[in-house]
Amino acid sequence: MISYSLVCDNSHKFDAWFRNAEAYEEQHDRGIVTCPMCNSVKVEKALMAPAVSRMNSDKVSLSTGHPMQSAIREMLRTMRKKVTSEADYVGDKFAEEARKIHFKEAEARGIYGEATRDEVAELIDDGVDFLPLPHIPEEAN
After folding, report:
1. Is 76 in contact with 40 (CB distance < 8 Å)?
2. Which residues of 55-82 are buried (b: 16+ CB within 10 A; e: fewer)?
3. 134: pLDDT strictly greater than 50
4. Spatial contact of 126 and 109, defined as CB atoms under 8 Å apart
5. ∠16-20-25 over CA atoms, to 5°?
6. CA dihedral for 27, 60, 126, 88, sign (positive or negative)
7. What is the pLDDT of residues 44-101, one digit of tens each?
């Protein structure tokens, strides 16, 4: 898997994961790489620091100090509430259910739940479309 820092024509910056570089190129060429803030399909790779091998796979990417941090946090909170209020919670069966929906073995519907890192990698390999569901505390400083 590979993570790219991306930027849209409205200067929104975001990160996205792809199976490999070719998968990014193929999705970009098809116009399905879109900005999560404005839905623009005019997305390009942003300047990135070189990837450094990590010793601790439990680390996560973090950010602070962005001038729109509060607004972005509220957008993410709103997105999470919308998904959880309109989709079916499938718990730790997310990977299994998402794969069934992708391969048309189950009714197409919105779902959310949890998956292990290995399950996430397998979903990406299978071409299953999904998004991480952010957890944003209600009272964040």
Report:
1. no
2. eeeeeeeeeeeeeeeeebeeeebeeeee
3. yes
4. no
5. 75
6. negative
7. 987 654 444 444 556 767 778 888 888 888 888 898 899 999 999 999 999 999 999 9
Identify whether the C-beta of residue 141 lies closer than 8 Å to the C-beta of residue 70. no
Task: Describe the strand order of the beta sheet including 2-8 as a list of residue ranges.
Answer: 13-18, 2-8, 43-45
| Inter-helix orientation angle 94-102/117-125, to 10° | 10
Cβ pair 37, 12 in contact under 8 A: yes
Tokens 């991480």 map to which residue?
Answer: 132
